[in-house]
Amino acid sequence: MVHITFFLALAAILFCIGLYGVLTRRHLVIVLVCVELMLMAVSINLIAFSAIGPSAGIEGQVFTLFIISVAAAEVAVGLAILIALYRNRESIDVIKHDLLRW
Amino acid sequence: MLLANDANWSLMTPEIVLAALALIIFTIDFMTDIKGKKPFLGRLSIISLLITAVLVLFTNNDGGTIGHVFVVDSFSMVFKLIILVGVALVIGISMYYLDKHEDIYQGEYYSLMLFATLGAMLMVSSADLIVLFVGLEILSISSYCLAAFKKYNRKSTEAGIKYVVLGGTASAFILYGMSFLYGLTGTTSIVEIREAIPTLWVDYTWVIAMSFLFMLAGFGFKISAVPFHMWAPDVYEGSPTPVTAFLSVVSKLAGFAIVLRLFFVTFENIYVEWAFTFAVIAALTMVIGNFIALTQKNVKRLMAYSGIAQAGYLLVPIAAVVTEADTFTMIAFYGMAYVLMTLGAFAIIILVTEDSGKEDMSSFKGLWERSPYMAVAMSVFLISLAGLPLTLGFWGKAYIFFGAVAAGMTWLAVVMIVTSVVSFFYYFGIIRQMFMREPEPTDQEIKVPVYLSVVVTICLAVTVALAFIPSIVMDWLQGLTWMGMF
Q1: Confidence band (pLDDT; 50, 70, 90) for B39?
Q2: Is the Cβ pair B133, A70 closer than 8 Å?
Q3: Chain A residues within an 8 Å CB radius of B188
Q4: What's the longest Cα–Cα distance across chain A?
Q5: Nearest Cα residue to B269 out of B215, B216, B208
Q6: Buried-exposed string B398-408: b where 16+ CB fall within 10 A, e elsewhere
Q7: Sign (positive/negative) of CA torsion B20, B251, B343, B61?
Q8: Which of B157, B180, B204 is the best substitution to test chain A (most A C-beta atoms within 10 A)?
Q9: What's the rounded Cα separation, in Å, for the pair B142 and B198?
Q10: What percent of chain B has pLDDT over 70?
Q11: What are phi and psi of B32, to 5 degrees?
């Protein structure tokens, strides 16, 4: 059997990739994808704990289902706002959206 | 094993009623014209919120729980009441704003605001990580939509996208922290996690500490505590002004309620280990919030930094606990004062900025000559926010100050006093504009619409009345059992 550490390491790596992407990428769609990546890292964590964790149980899988559905709602709203932004500004480059600062 | 038939669903009455009323308002919206003004929906929303508030007052008094997932106690009652009254006042302000802005789809605005309130109520009552997360996301996703509500406005959509990306990241942080708590304990109930924490802290110190810090970063974002505050000024400036009022009051207080519930229940047994983290964050929040506010010229941005600073004052009782009941009392009292002062101030800010068309501080020039009542009311709110003696804000700060001294956190109390003195400068900057500057020759007397003057009068009356007799509310709060269940 695969030890749980490998799953936790995979989740940690995915979480870091996601966070790095949110902080550095300029394309807003990629940024939203990276937010999803972070949430999916959490899901891997929960499923690993729920299957082979020290105190395994069904709650982790239930939690994951909630995360998947909520993440879908969040991205739907995010993409809708992104389209509104594109119509106003003709660009979805992060660097160009600097009306609000300091 | 809990069966759906055995659960005492009547405890959820206020939430169910509010959800039903919000859906009814949503339905009425698409049965009427797509565009056009819909003031009746605003009135209906206010009535729904007041009905829910009355239900909360009657059903949440005794306390009870649905399968240790949804808890009803004095703590949830107090915070739900503050949130519901706050949202009712925000909708009162919004009705004037929506009247001026035809490009906003009006019905959706009200129903989204009610759904956000529902999410906040679920959060306040949750005793389970899953319920907490769902409530938090109902509140957050509705807030994202509200922040970007002027969809033809460049600033508003930019604020919306910033809020979505950063809010989603904060949610991921909270969840990542929670996943380790679940992994080590095998349960999502915060009561059961609390039982397991002392032994886990010995065995898995680093995992618990990491989980705590991840959740702290996520919730710190929601309550806009430094160093997780960078989104707040941008989103507050870009959003429609009533939404700014909503975010700075309702979102923030719901965040505080859940920080109290989660950290004081789950991590109570290892309080000494994490209290200092909160002390550092509180000090940073007060210092940075107040000092950056000094440099701001835009009124909404100024209020954003002022809100950050106020969050710092609210964090002090968490870092310096005498007894838990005292901490809850201080935060509930100051939170209530904060809602009244901030919403009153925002009502007048909307009046002035809509009249002049710009959000600069100078739009307050000569308000005394243009509308004396509003100028006096604004001064009362600002003086109270600054915490000058014998105002409501002063009593709230005084309780927090003496609590911090009693808990042996004198340095934190000193930081609080010094930063409060700093805050006088920017609050008095607005007062100086109102009383000591001449209005522009073209400025006319401001006509105050009825909804705004009602909101301002309510906030003013309660702020002034409680400044003289704060003991009424204090005694009531101190007599509560708060989280009697745990």
Answers
A1: confident
A2: yes
A3: 59, 63
A4: 54
A5: B208
A6: ebbbebbeebe
A7: positive
A8: B157
A9: 37
A10: 99
A11: -95, -175
- Exposure of B339 in the CB half-sphere (CA atoms within 13 A): 25
The answer on pLDDT for B328 being more than 80 is yes
DSSP state letter for B3: -
pLDDT (tens digit per residue) in A52-101:
988 888 999 999 999 999 999 999 999 999 999 999 888 888 877 777 77
CA of B127 vs chain A CAs: smallest distance (Å): 14
Bridge-based pairing of strands B70-72 and B64-66 is antiparallel
Contacts of B393 (CB under 8 A, 6+ apart): B337, B338, B341, B383, B384, B385, B386, B387
Q: What is the pLDDT of residue B350?
A: 93
User: Domain residues of chain B, as ranges?
Assistant: 11-478
**Residues B176, A66: C-beta atoms closer than 8 Å:** no
Chain B residues whose beta carbon lies within 8 Å of the beta carbon of residue A89: 154, 157-158
**pLDDT single digits (tens) B262-297:** 998 888 888 888 999 999 999 999 999 999 999 998
Contacting B residues, span 250-309, partner chain A, CB-CB under 8 Å: 295
Q: Which amino acid is at B431?
A: I
A28 and B161 within 8 Å at the Cβ level: the answer is yes
* Helix ranges, B32-128 (H): 39-59, 74-100, 106-125
pLDDT tens-digit profile of B436-472? 888 877 777 888 888 899 999 999 999 999 999 988 8
Interface test with B, best of A13, A77, A87 (most B CBs within 10 A): A77
Single-letter residue type at A24: T
| Nearest to B89, CA basis, from B119, B120, B57, B46 | B46
pLDDT in tens, B381-401: 999 999 888 889 999 999 999
A contact test, residue of B126, B175, B203, B221 with most A CBs within 10 A: B175
Given CB atoms, is A95 within the 8 Å cutoff of chain B? Answer: no
Residue B211 one-letter amino acid: S
| Residue B361: predicted pLDDT | 86
What ipTM, to 2 d.p.? 0.96
Closest-CA residue of chain B to A96:
B158
* Matching CATH number, A4-96, of 2.60.40.10, 1.10.287.1120, 3.30.200.20, 1.10.287.3510: 1.10.287.3510
Length of chain A: 102
Cα→Cα distances B12→B58, B259, B391, Å = 12, 22, 37
Query: What does the alpha-carbon distance between residue B341 and residue A48 come to, in Å, rounded to a whole number?
Result: 48
At B486 the pLDDT is 61
Kindly write down the DSSP assignment for every residue of chain A, as one continuous string.
Answer: ---HHHHHHHHHHHHHHHHHHHHH--BHHHHHHHHHHHHHHHHHHHHHHHHHSTT--SHHHHHHHHHHHHHHHHHHHHHHHHHHHHHHHS--BGGG--SS--
Tell me the per-residue pLDDT of B190-218, one tens digit each, with 9 for 90 and over: 989 999 999 999 999 999 999 999 999 99
